[in-house]
């Protein structure tokens, strides 16, 4: 049996087609006593050698160099440059989400290897637009998601163009420039946790967040499929660049980490198999647990908010029972 076959077999269980090593790991950054070596390994794993963070940072550099309208054109609002941003975001979202969807679910290039849930996107389900999860997810992601993303894009680019937002360069502040790439995902996780907890308030959940949670068995388009109000909250993190000194590359990087990374985090697969040995980590089992059990893992593994507030699910049967008990108490009220 090959090493790959052994890994796949080891990750199989009654509940899951495949899962990573358990318990689920979260950042050691906030451990006490401090664990500097473990923290260094955590950040190295997330950035080296080829990871999503590195890919989005590289994409941000390419987009800034060739696919952003000149700043002097963006000093006043104009349909021309705003629609250019919208078209670019639409194309990028489609390339990433549809590319992953075709590879994993359309062409089934890696079969069931590293797939979390034994199920796939739902069909003939009246809960979705046109009774189809795929088309429902695509509609919300493109019509609402890309439009809201572009709305925030336009605000921040307008601010950069007019000098209203503080801007740095790698030459003017090299330490802060590179440190931001490591710090911004932590800030993103902080924002996502508290927004997500608010979305699970029953009144808000029923009217807003339930649109996203209809996709119990997630697929790439599920990640950015949300109610428009949720899109407004989710993408609002981009407004921090109105006050935080940064370069437009950082702004693009976080935009991609919010929008495009939603396709990978909801891919439903832990790894992308390219050839026999090349694996790129894409899916998030941490978030997959949230879509199955709902009242857990509201944040991401970049910050241990769930650990601190008792909502962490580490993938163990004990955690599953604890979450189910929490849901029973909530429903009884």
Automatic annotation (TrEMBL):
Signal peptide: which range, if any?
none
Q: Where in the cell is it found?
A: Membrane
Transmembrane as a keyword of this entry, yes or no, is yes
Tell me which InterPro entries the record gives: Fatty_acid_hydroxylase, Sterol_Desaturase_Related
Superkingdom as given in the UniProt entry: Bacteria
Q: Provide this UniProt record's keywords sorted from A to Z.
A: Membrane, Transmembrane, Transmembrane helix
Report the GO molecular function annotations: iron ion binding; oxidoreductase activity
Q: Which residues form a coiled coil?
A: none
Q: Does the keyword Cytoplasm apply?
A: no
What residue stretches are annotated with the Fatty acid hydroxylase domain?
A: 182-311
TM region(s), chain numbering: 53-69, 90-107, 138-163, 175-195, 234-261
Which GO biological process categories is it annotated with? lipid biosynthetic process
State what protein this is by name: Desaturase
**Species, as recorded:** Sulfitobacter mediterraneus
Taxonomic lineage: Bacteria, Pseudomonadati, Pseudomonadota, Alphaproteobacteria, Rhodobacterales
């Amino acid at each position: 049996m090959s090493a790959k076959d052994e890994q796949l077999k080891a990750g199989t269980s009654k509940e899951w087609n495949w899962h990573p090593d358990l318990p689920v790991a979260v950042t050691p950054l906030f451990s006490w006593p401090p664990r500097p070596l473990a923290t260094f390994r955590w950040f190295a794993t997330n950035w080296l050698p080829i990871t999503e963070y590195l890919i989005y940072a590289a994409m941000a550099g390419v987009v800034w160099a060739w696919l952003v309208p000149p700043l002097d054109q963006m000093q006043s609002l104009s349909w021309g440059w705003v629609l250019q941003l919208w078209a670019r975001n639409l194309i990028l979202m489609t390339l990433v989400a549809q590319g992953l969807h075709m590879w994993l679910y359309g062409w089934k290039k890696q079969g069931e290897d590293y797939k979390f849930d034994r199920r796939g996107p739902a069909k003939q389900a009246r809960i979705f637009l046109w009774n189809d999860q795929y088309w429902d997810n695509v509609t919300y992601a493109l019509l609402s998601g890309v439009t809201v993303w572009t709305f925030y894009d336009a605000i921040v680019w307008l601010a950069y163009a007019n000098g209203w937002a503080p801007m740095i360069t790698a030459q003017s502040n090299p330490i802060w420039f590179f440190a931001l790439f490591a710090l911004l995902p932590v800030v993103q996780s902080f924002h996502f946790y508290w927004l997500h907890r608010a979305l699970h308030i029953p009144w808000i959940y029923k009217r807003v967040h339930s649109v996203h949670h209809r996709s119990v068995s997630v697929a790439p388009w599920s990640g950015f499929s949300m109610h428009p109000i949720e899109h407004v909250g989710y993408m609002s993190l981009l407004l921090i660049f109105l006050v935080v000194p940064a370069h437009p590359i950082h702004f693009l990087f976080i935009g991609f980490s919010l929008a495009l990374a939603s396709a990978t985090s909801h891919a439903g697969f832990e790894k992308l198999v390219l050839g026999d040995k090349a694996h790129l980590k894409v899916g998030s089992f941490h978030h997959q647990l949230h879509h199955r059990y709902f009242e857990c893992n509201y944040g991401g593994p970049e910050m241990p908010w769930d650990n601190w507030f008792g909502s962490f699910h580490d993938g163990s049967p004990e955690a599953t029972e604890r979450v189910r008990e929490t849901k029973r108490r909530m429903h009884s009220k």
